[in-house]
Design a protein that fits this description.
Length: 62
């Protein structure tokens, strides 16, 4: 017999955007960049350039 995953509820159901959760979105996008680098879709230079652009985007919001 297989177990099934069941969603029992949702907490804090709100919009996630650069105004409400900038730290979350920064880490989420950094994680995507890391996956792309680890899978050799981005090379090290491309990864660093993309991460730098992401950081600058965050700093402009502050």
């Amino acid at each position: 017999m297989r177990n099934k995953a069941v969603l029992k509820g949702v907490e804090n159901d709100g919009d996630i955007n650069w105004n409400t959760a900038p730290d979350f979105l920064m880490e989420y996008q950094r994680a995507i960049l890391l996956i792309l680098r680890e899978n050799e879709i981005l090379n090290e230079d491309q990864y660093r350039m993309a991460e730098d652009k992401l950081r600058k985007r965050i700093w402009k919001r502050d």
